[in-house]
């Protein structure tokens, strides 16, 4: 299961969990392992948003305030939150455990997906943004929780747990 953690003014977790199914437009969709590899390697500027709203930017790869790492589990992220009302709201909701999860905006290049009946597997995608979702994300394998770290050892434990 994916999750988002709040540590001081940083959010981290998984925006994509490989192999998790989402019900979209009456069908099932799954993101295959490695689907974002080329997109990450391209150096494109990827945004971190609130609810897919481009006016509520939390971070971006170009400035280094959004860091994305692909591993066997999926696409891990870390966002250094700005001192904006949108970020303060997201942080408060994360600390209370009130956020719905994560989502992502993407396009699929020709030949990047495979259909079997009403089941779609995305094998290659161009990632445009990840979003913190306040209510109900399409991929319910993501969840949001806040944990307060009281000391450096606790911070280290949380980071190690994130990448297991």
Which tags fit this structure?
single chain; 164 residues; alpha+beta; five-stranded mixed beta sheet; globular; disordered C terminus
Overview of the structural elements:
Residues 8-150 form the Prohead serine protease domain. It comes from Sphingobium baderi. With 164 residues, the protein is α+β, with helices and mostly antiparallel strands. The protein has one domain. 17% of the residues lie in helices and 45% in strands. It contains 3 helices and 13 strands. It has helices spanning 37-41, 85-96, 152-162, and strands spanning 2-7, 10-17, 21-24, 27-31, 47-50, 53-60, 66-70, 74-80, 101-107, 113-116, 119-122, 126-133, 142-144. The strands form 3 sheets. The chain has a 5-stranded mixed beta sheet. A 4-stranded mixed beta sheet has the order 3-4-11-10, with no helix packed on it. A 4-stranded mixed beta sheet has the order 6-5-12-9. The termini are close together.
Give the class from helix and strand content and strand pairing. Answer: alpha+beta
Radius of gyration computed on alpha carbons: 15 Å
Q: What is the first-to-last residue Cα distance?
A: 12 Å
> How many separate helices?
3
Number of domains: 1
State the order of secondary-structure elements, H for helix, E for strand: EEEEHEEEEHEEEEEH
Helix percentage range: 10-25%
| Percentage beta strand | 35-45%
Mean pLDDT: 81
DSSP E strands, number: 13
What low-confidence regions span 5 or more consecutive residues with pLDDT below 50?
A: 142-164
User: Major sheet: order of its strands?
Assistant: 7-8-2-1-13
Main sheet characteristics: 5 strands, mixed
| Shape annotation | globular
GO biological process, one term: proteolysis
GO molecular function, one term: peptidase activity
InterPro entries: Peptidase_S78_dom (IPR054613), Prohead_protease (IPR006433)
Organism: Sphingobium baderi
